[in-house]
Amino acid sequence: MSATTTTPRESRRALGAGLRATAKVLPEHARAHNRALLLQHLFHAGPTSRADLARATALTRVTVSDLVSVLLAEGLVEELGVRPGRRVGKPATLVGMRTDAYQVVAVDLSDEAVVRGAVLTLAGEVVVRRSLAVDERSGDDLVDLLTRFARRLLSAATRPVIGVGVGSPGVVDPWGRVVEAPNRAWSDLPLAALLSERLGLPVQVANDADTAALGEYTYGGAAGSMLVLTVGQGVGAGIVVDGARVHGAGDAAGELGHVTVVDDGEPCACGRRGCLETVLSAPALRRAVAGLDAAEADAALAAAGRVLGAALAPVVSALNLAEVLLCGPPELLDGALRRAATDTLRERTMPAVGAGLRLRMAALGGDVVLAGAAVLVLAAQLGIS
Question: Which of 88, 116, 138, 222 has the fewest Cβ atoms surrounding its Cβ within 10 A?
Answer without folding.
Answer: 88
